[in-house]
Design goal:
The protein is an alpha/beta fold and 371 residues long. It has 16 helices and 12 strands. The model has no long low-confidence stretch (mean pLDDT 87).
Amino acid sequence: MASALQAAYDARVREGSIRADPAQAAALRPLVRLEADLAAHRPKGGLKKLFHKPEGQRGVYLIGPVGRGKSMLMDLFFETSTEPSRRRTHFHVFMGEIHRLIDTWRKSDAAARKATFGQHKGDDPIVPVADVVAAQSRLLCFDEFQVTDIADAMILGRLFAALFERGVTLVATSNRLPDELYKNGINRQLFTPFIDLLKSKVEVVTIAGPHDYRLDRLRAAGTWFSPIDPDNERSFDALWREMLGPEDESGGTVEVLGRKVHFPHAAGGLLRASFASLCAVALGPNDYVAIAARFHTVFLDGVPRLGPNRREEARRLVILIDALYEARTHLIVLADAEPVKLYPEGDGSFEFERTASRLQEMRSADWLEDL
């Protein structure tokens, strides 16, 4: 049986929408294998389905740096798959839904549980939640698989053991190897059984090619847009849409010391936020470090010229840029002025010169090359 996935990839190479890449071609092979496995083991209808235990297939875990084409390959796999029961989403969105389902089970009476889950007995929410997820999707495709939240870490092992038992197959992209998930996390020893389970259920595939396609877009378009005028606003918006690709702005949340900060304009590792939402509100160093850890690319919109009456906003901008700089984040800015003219006078303006220098470095070709 010919591979629809391989045919679609080859067609994109021929038409020039993607370039031929040996690393991507090598990573495509396990997905082609999974495509065939899923088709060969598709559940039959009728009485056989009633008595046949669902059978999951060995999934694929695509690992590699940002911009190597992991998400593109997984999306192409998803688009060409003939599996009718499938879902593609960002991992943090999925886990948010899991926590809401768990909360619903715990807070509902028997009738409400029955309506949502089709069952109502017991105190453990994991089994009914897994039943709901498995009934909706035989194939789960996760972008940006990462574990930084202790609440996620503590339930993943039991949740995915239940999902795999129900025949769910997993495809995921990640910037971290399975053994590096939840690295240095609290009570990580309780999480490591999940790592072993994950490695037993997926083929770990590294996209090792040196070419970063996302950076090509940033190099071509530039990363600093000023002043804020219609032309630069259009260019900034166009670059955001291009970086998003087919993704929806599903939103993103970071948790800091038990407090959650939600960003509506986010997708996976991409964040678009206004200066006002990051620097004119009561956020601090821990918030900015969490943002830098959560997002690999930040679009910062509407940075104004600052003066003495806005010294607190200038101070927060300094802390934000320091966090993004240390995390080697891609930063794209729409601002009223060049970095050196953003905060020319006021408390801390002398110290702001270091921030302006960092902003200049972060827009340079050398910075992009080193990422």
